[in-house]
Amino acid sequence: MRLKGKKSVVTGAGSGIGRATALAFLRGGADVMAGIFEPTDEAELRRAAEGLPGRLSIRRADVSVEAQARALVDGAAETFGGLDILANNAGVVVSGEVTEVDDAQWDFVMGVNAKGVLYCSKHAVPHLLAAGGGSIVNTASINAIRGNHRLVAYAASKGSVQAMTMAMALDYAARNIRVNCVCPATIEGTRMVDQTYDEAADRNLHREYLLEKHPMRRLGRPEEVANAILFLASDEASFITGQSLAIDGGRSIR
After folding, report:
1. CATH number for the domain that contains residue 159
2. Can you tell me the mean pLDDT for 131-138?
3. pTM above 0.85, yes or no
4. Residue 113 pLDDT more than 90?
5. Is 135 helix (H, G, I), strand (E, B) or coil?
């Protein structure tokens, strides 16, 4: 019950890291407003949350649209009577070199990954200040700190998330709002990684390529990232702000 009594928003909660984070928060005793994009994800999330101590509310939102991001955040504050934690996890990926990415692809990735963090944080901060402080945890990526092939737009968006994390941390440190980010490497059981398998000419060779990047010779699990987000969101991390935590099986030190 590390988050007992805390009121939270988790974006991208329909699958992968976001769903694992929402469940970790509920298991920790938090009330969770789960932002999803695909309506078909709701039933599975509700099923997985059965019996957990926290309260779950679900709202569909496209966080790249400010009105929808605001409705998600304000809806959580209205439903739970305030807000203590925002976990910005919603994300998308588009593959391609700089010569291949068009304006629509760039805007799509930056809209969800960067604007989504901007909009949700913008409307969460007043609620966090009203509560006397709180925590924002952003999901960036190992691509914010390490290069990768054919991910120029995605890397740019996640580098933006990391930079926004540090800037917001400075802006609100004296007002008791902590802002941190996690930088996962390749995490199995996520739609983004599934997409890379679908795009690969040979799935087995692609998996070996991914394993070779990670010194631990395995890929991560959504729950391993969720555990780190839970820690950073909790009072156990009360003196940590502006940090980027790589969850990467050693990828960033290779």
Report:
1. 3.40.50.720
2. 98
3. yes
4. yes
5. strand
Look at residue 237 and tell me if it is in a domain: yes
The number of distinct structural domains making up the chain is: 1
Pick from 91, 132, 73, 78: which is nearest to 225 by CA? 91
What are the helix (H) ranges across 173-202?
191-199
Q: Each residue of 152-198: pLDDT tens digit?
A: 999 999 999 999 999 999 999 999 999 999 999 999 989 888 888 88
Tallying the residues shown for the chain, one arrives at: 254
Catalytic positions, please? 154
Burial class (CB in 10 A: 0-12, 13-18, 19+), 243: middle
CA distances from 252 to 49, 136, 137 (A): 33, 23, 20
pLDDT of the residue at 200: 85
Q: Which sign, positive or negative, has the C-alpha torsion 167, 65, 183, 128? A: positive
